[in-house]
């Protein structure tokens, strides 16, 4: 599976958009980009995934560059409850639960 | 999505004893379950893949005799930490793969194990 690189930490003001970048330059053609987050002392939570097109759901938007070597997760109006570690993971479709987690980005949403 | 329940949420045990952690898929049959462990301030590390009715597949470096996995039904997998030692203290998390949801993983809330 391709490796991902994310900033260690980021801050975001409450109510503003949080843009979390992820580099995955070795992604292969059949690999998806998945985003999960983990609030402190809880199990991870699925956010969104995509292959090549941009995706949006009720939680977030995922922007994938045309060359697919990087992506950005956007939380449009961050709240204090969005404070968590966000993981960008690359893997094949039907990956299910076998996920290889990197170090993730610790997002702190501040009032 | 699928609801995954882990029990217990936390446990403290004495060194040398064994501890069993349960992972249940409450509303879907889980064809496969996964077990992870997480040390403080670290990321999740996949320990093993558990398939119903067959032996678990362990990741490199994980002792199968130390971490016994039983996947007795499509809704229950158990992880038993045998002869636990303080270095086994960690956050253990399970996830399930549900046939109806091809790409999403559903995680339990985790079990905090402290060995004293």
Task: Characterise the protein shown here.
Chain A has 111 residues and is mainly beta. Chain A is 0% helix and 47% strand. Chain A is built from no helices and nine strands. In chain A, the strands form two sheets. Chain A has a five-stranded mixed β-sheet with strand order 1-9-8-3-4, with no helix packed on it. In chain A, strands 2-7-6-5 form a four-stranded antiparallel β-sheet, with no helix packed on it. Chain A is globular, with a radius of gyration of 13 Å. The termini of chain A are far apart. By secondary structure, chain B is mostly beta strands. Helix content of chain B is 0%, strand content 59%. In chain B, the strands form two sheets. In chain B, strands 2, 4, 5, 6, 9, 10 and 11 form a seven-stranded mixed β-sheet that branches. In chain B, β4 and β5 form a beta hairpin. The termini of chain B are far apart. At the A-B interface, β3 and β4 of A face β4, β5, β9 and β10 of B.
What's the topology here?
The complex is a heterodimer of chains A (111) and B (116).
Chain A: E1 9-13, E2 18-23, E3 31-38, E4 45-50, E5 55-56, E6 61-64, E7 70-75, E8 84-92, E9 105-110
Chain B: E1 4-7, E2 10-13, E3 19-25, E4 30-38, E5 44-51, E6 57-58, E7 67-73, E8 76-81, E9 90-98, E10 101-107, E11 111-115
Parallel strand pairs in B: 2-11
Antiparallel strand pairs in B: 1-3, 3-8, 4-5, 4-9, 5-6, 7-8, 9-10, 9-11
